[in-house]
Write a structure and sequence with these properties.
Helix content is 51%, strand content 0%. It is an all-alpha fold. The chain has one domain. The chain is globular, with a radius of gyration of 16 Å.
């Protein structure tokens, strides 16, 4: 019931169509490409839906490894944009 209620709220949002026209669809074959795509479009991750937790955890681990690799290459310095 909670998921149905959440879906109804989502569909009432002005940008609801973007969930169906692929505006909010992730792009990229690598973690770096995914991060670039989401950053470029100012997208953020939402909580995992029931049943997708294991895939979400795998992605979270890949993102954490990517973050560590980027920061080690930058020597801990974060570039400002």
């Amino acid at each position: 019931m909670n998921q149905l209620d959440d879906a109804a709220k989502l569909l009432a949002e002005p940008d609801a169509g973007n969930y169906f026209n692929r505006t909010y669809a992730p792009e990229g074959r690598t973690v770096a490409q995914l991060v670039h795509s989401m950053t470029r479009r100012n997208l953020r991750f939402a909580p995992a839906v029931a049943g997708d937790e294991s895939a979400y955890l795998v992605l979270q681990r890949a993102l954490a490894e990517y973050d560590l690799a980027v920061h080690s290459q930058l020597g801990g310095v974060v570039a400002k944009t």
